[in-house]
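Try this one yourself first.
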C-alpha cells in the first residue's frame, strides 16, 4: 500500500494520458556469487518510537544476513556466465538500462509512468517516526502475518526509555502495533521484546495472507489410541530448544560436499590433460 502515492493521484495521472502500454519483462535473473559476511552491523536509519508523550530514539538494523545464503550462478553449459538482458515484448529489441522507466499498474497492462525525480520525492516522504497505536497480546498475531524483520537498538540518549519499553513488553506479554511510512510505502509493524532487546517486524496486510479455511480441508475424527501413538512419536524426537545454527551447518554441508568433489575431479582432469598434451603433440609430429 503506497503512502505518498495515493490511488487518487495515480488515477488522475492515468486520466491525463500518462498511462502507457508496457510489456512484461522476461525474468532472466542472474545470481551473483556469495559475498563475504559483514564483520560489523551497520544501521539502516535513525528512527523514533512514539506513543503519547514518549519518544524512544532508536537505530534500525537488518535482522538477516543475505551473504550467508547459498546461491548458485546461472551459467552456460561451457561454464561461462550468463548476462541479463531486458527485452521489449512488442519490438523484441534489447532495452538498455538507461532507457528503462518505472511504472505502476493501474489496469491490466496499463501503467502510470514515473520520472526519476518523482520517485526521489516519494523516497523523501519516508517518516522517521514509528507511531505506536496499541499494545496487544503477543500471541494474538499469527506468524503468518510476519514479513521482514529488523533489530532496534537505542540511539543517543535513548538507553533508558529503550530499556523501560523492552522490560514493560516482556512483563506484560504484549507487543506494540505501529504505523510506519518507509520508502514510499505505509507499513503496519509489530514491536516485540526478547531477552536481548526490541525487534521490529513488518506485518503483511490481511489481503496478502491466505487462510487454511480456503483449502477446504476435510475434518477427520481421531481416536484416543491414535492420539496416544502420535504423542509417543512426537516425544521420541522432541527437543527443548531450537538450534538454528545446526540446520544451517547441515544445509551448507549438503551443497558443499558435491561441489568439493566436482572441483577436485575438475582439477584432476586438467592435470591429466597437461601431462598428456606434450605426448600427444609428439606423436602427431612423427
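Now uncover the answer:
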Amino acid at each position: 500500500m503506497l503512502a505518498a502515492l495515493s490511488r487518487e493521484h495515480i488515477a488522475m495521472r492515468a486520466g491525463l494520458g500518462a498511462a502507457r502500454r508496457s510489456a512484461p519483462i522476461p525474468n532472466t535473473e542472474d545470481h551473483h556469487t556469495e559475498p563475504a559476511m559483514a564483520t560489523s552491523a551497520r544501521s539502516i536509519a535513525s528512527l523514533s518510537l512514539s506513543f503519547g508523550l514518549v519518544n524512544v530514539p532508536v537505530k534500525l538494523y537488518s535482522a538477516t544476513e543475505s551473504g550467508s545464503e547459498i546461491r548458485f550462478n546461472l551459467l552456460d553449459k561451457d561454464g561461462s556466465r550468463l548476462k541479463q538482458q531486458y527485452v521489449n515484448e512488442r519490438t523484441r529489441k534489447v532495452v538498455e538500462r538507461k532507457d528503462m522507466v518505472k511504472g505502476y499498474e493501474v489496469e491490466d497492462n496499463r501503467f502510470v509512468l514515473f520520472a526519476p525525480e518523482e520517485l526521489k520525492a516519494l523516497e523523501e516522504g519516508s517518516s522517521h517516526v514509528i507511531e505506536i497505536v496499541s499494545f496487544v497480546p503477543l500471541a494474538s498475531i499469527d506468524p503468518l502475518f510476519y514479513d521482514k524483520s529488523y533489530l532496534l537498538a537505542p540511539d543517543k540518549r535513548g538507553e533508558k526509555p529503550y530499556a523501560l519499553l523492552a522490560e514493560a513488553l516482556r512483563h506484560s506479554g504484549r507487543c506494540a502495533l505501529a504505523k510506519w511510512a518507509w520508502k514510499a510505502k505505509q507499513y503496519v509493524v509489530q514491536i516485540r521484546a526478547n531477552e536481548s532487546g526490541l525487534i521490529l517486524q513488518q506485518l503483511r496486510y490481511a489481503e496478502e495472507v491466505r487462510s487454511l479455511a480456503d483449502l477446504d480441508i476435510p475434518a477427520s475424527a481421531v481416536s484416543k489410541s491414535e492420539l496416544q501413538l502420535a504423542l509417543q512419536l512426537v516425544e521420541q524426537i522432541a527437543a527443548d530448544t531450537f538450534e538454528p545454527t545446526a540446520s544451517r551447518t547441515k544445509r551448507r554441508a549438503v551443497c558443499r560436499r558435491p561441489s568439493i568433489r566436482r572441483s577436485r575431479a575438475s582439477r584432476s582432469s586438467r592435470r591429466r590433460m597437461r601431462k598428456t598434451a606434450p605426448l600427444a603433440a609428439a606423436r602427431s609430429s612423427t
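Discussion: The chain has a mean pLDDT of 80. The chain has five helices and twelve strands.
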